[in-house]
Amino acid sequence: MGFYLLKTSEIVIKGRNRKFFEKILINNLKEKLKNKSFKLKNLGGEFLLEIDGNIEEELSKIFGINKVLEIKIFDNLDSVKDFLKKEAKEKGIGIKLKVKRKDKEFNMTSKEIFEYLMGELKYFTNQAPKETKEYYLIYYKKNFFIGEEKFKGYGGLPVGASGKGLVLLSTGFDSPVASFLMMKRGLKLYFLHFHSYPQTSIQDIEKVKNIVQVLDEYNLGSELYLMNILNIQKFYFKNIPSKYLVIFYRRTMFRLATKLAKDKGIKVLVTGENLGQVASQTIDNLKTIENATDLLVLRPLIGLNKQEIINMAQKIGTYDISKLPGDDCCSLFIPKHPATKSNLKEILKIESTIKDKIEELEQEIYKEKELLKF
Ligand code: ATP
Ligand code: MG
After folding, report:
1. Model confidence band, residue 12 (pLDDT cutoffs 50, 70, 90)
2. What is the CATH number of domain 2-152?
3. Of 168, 198, 206, 307, whose CB has the highest number of CB atoms within 10 Å?
4. pLDDT, tens digit, for every residue of 86-139?
5. Rounded to the nearest whole angstrom, what is the distance from the C-alpha of residue 58 to the centroid of ligand 1?
6. What is the CA radius of gyration of the chain?
């Protein structure tokens, strides 16, 4: 069995709410490791994990964990000292040490412990070490935990600690990255994808499923809703000036997302929208689209460049799926140069003339929605 110390960053400083965050993190860890045998102990803002095998792949996807140390446990300081001497000698390294007492029972202060261990160690290597490594020593209930960083996590807040969010998820690069960023801030995500089958292909739906599969490794239990908007797109195509089609599609998406969110007790929508990336993402158009919902809309990518988004997609594992060829329901029936400026009043005026039909079609779409669970 190996021993690991999982360090959190923000959770430690959450004061009186710390217990709330810790409980969610523990549940997430248990869910992630449910097929393995392990022991987990809360040392107060840090967790001791006893487990076999390589855990980097799994633990690095648990938000809230900042660093993972591989550690040894000793019950006296002399053994710690021997361990450090051996590490320095065998690895030919200099040692930096951080000492922390989690309970103040021990009769030496952190500073005294440091002096006791390092005073001698300083003179131990007479050659200048080629590199220096940082070790952490933690005293907790008569035990010394000592070790070095094995890998980093993404930090952030455990998924669920900030509540629930509904993502409008396409198969492009952006919305999966937006999802990642919001999970990192503690949102438990639900996913909604619009398609226009059979105008758009079945591969489009496979793609979105594969994306959710990847995101689920962070989200730990996901629901993907599918809505077919083909009929309403055809209706708009016949009744709306083509330069406004995207805006009408988008407003329908926002209304349907809002209805689903409210039915599920979700208070926030998440999109991969970005300022200026495509024609529908000017300030005027973002505003006109947003007017179709009264929920808070989070757009975590708003200020990122495309390359920054792509880099992140590669890191989180959605890039290879998004880059596969595929259709996008929003590019159906639309002109090469959609309007970049929309006047909300004008859009609302057009919309009001066909309001009943829109409502009827949207109700139909909502009724026919499909749900996939991960
Ligand atoms: P993405 O890379 O996420 O597709 P994009 O740069 O292609 O974004 P748009 O296609 O204008 O930009 O989409 C903007 C946002 O609208 C998307 O990030 C997503 O949140 C939402 N969206 C677009 N198409 C769909 C869809 N078919 N189903 C659900 N949401 C969608
Ligand atoms: Mg897109």
Report:
1. low
2. 3.30.2130.30
3. 168
4. 988 888 888 899 998 887 788 899 999 999 988 877 655 556 667 888 899 999
5. 29
6. 26
Gap from CA of 345 to ligand 1 centroid (Å): 24
Question: What CATH number does the domain located at 164-373 have?
Answer: 3.40.50.620
* First and final C-alpha spacing in the chain: 31
For the chain, the structural domain boundaries read 2-152, 164-373
pLDDT tens by residue, 324-350? 987 776 666 777 777 778 789 999 999
To test ligand 1's pocket by mutation, which of 174, 306, 308, 340 has the most ligand atoms within 8 angstroms of CB?
174
> Which amino acid is located at 104 in the chain?
K
Sign, CA dihedral 280-281-286-292, equals positive
Q: Which of 168, 179, 247, 281 to mutate to test the pocket of ligand 1 (most atoms within 8 A of CB)?
A: 168
pLDDT > 90 fraction of the chain, expressed in percent and rounded: 74
Q: Which helix (H) or strand (E) holds 99?
A: strand 93-101
All residues with CB under 5 Å from ion ligand 2: 170, 172
Distance CA(366)–CA(227), nearest Å, equals 7
- Is any ligand 1 atom within 6 A of the Cβ of residue 271? yes
